[in-house]
Here is the input.
Amino acid sequence: MRNVISMLAVITVVALSAFAPPALLITSTAFTPNGMIPQKYTCEGEQDSPPLQVANVPKETKSLALILHDPDAPLRGGFTHWVMWNIDVKGGIPENFKGAEQGANGIHKKGYIGMCPPSGIHHYHFMVYALDTKLDLPVTTDKKKLEEAMNGHILAQGDLVGLYEKKK
Here is the structure.
C-alpha cells in the first residue's frame, strides 16, 4: 500500500509540473538574488526603482507584467510596492522606469514606492509574468485586480527576491 501511495505522489508531482508555466530568469545589476537592495531604491534613498533584466521570455509573449510585493509587511496580505503591465517584451526594465502601464501600489498611488520596512529585514519579491496578451486595465488597478486579469494568460513567470532593512 505504501508503494502505491508513493507512486501516486510521484505521478501527481510529474503531472502538475507539466502544467506549471516555465520560469523566467529575473536579475538585477543593483543586487544579487536574496541579496541586500541598495538604499538608493528605498525610502531612505532616492526611491528610484532598481533595474531588472528578464530572460527566457517565450517567443509568443505579447507583454510582461510586474508585481513587487513585501509579504513580511505587518499588514494583512503584506504590502505591494509596484504594479505594472504592458511592459515591452524587449529591453528589460531600466532603473527608475516610468514606461508601461503602472497601477496602484499599497498606498493607492500610481507607480513605484521604495522599500521602507518598519523593523527587521524584509523580503521583496519582484515577480515578472510573460503574458500572451496586452491588458486593458484602469490606472487604479492594484495587485489583486492585476492577478485576476492575468489569470489564464501567463506563459511564464519568475521571481527575484531582494532584502532590505532600514538603517535609521
In short: The first helix runs from residue 2 to 19.
